[in-house]
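As the next step, I selected for study one protein, both as residues and as discrete backbone shape codes, as given directly below:
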Amino acid sequence: MGKSIQVIFLLKKIDMLLFIVDTMIMSFIDTMKVFIQVLKNWQVIVTTVLMLLVMAFANFIIKYKRKPKKIRPKKEEKAPKAPAATEEKSESDTPEE
């Protein structure tokens, strides 16, 4: 019985190796079919778009620089204009003697 179990185990290993080799020797056309099916999968498309958005946002954050505030000269408050200094005194304003 011990030898039959070893033979079965050995046959399973050989079968597994043949399966691996068979999958490695896929034709180019079969490989392209699988590749196209993967690209058409909606999960792959959504993941790719989300990754691109995250990468674009990260790039924006890395390169973002605030514009320096412009230093504006302080405006001086102008004093209100004084009334005209050339007021003529009328005769009634002068004291009578």
Summary: The radius of gyration is 46 Å. The chain has a mean pLDDT of 77. Residues 79 and 85 are 16 Å apart (CA to CA). The helical segments are 2-24, 28-40, 42-63.
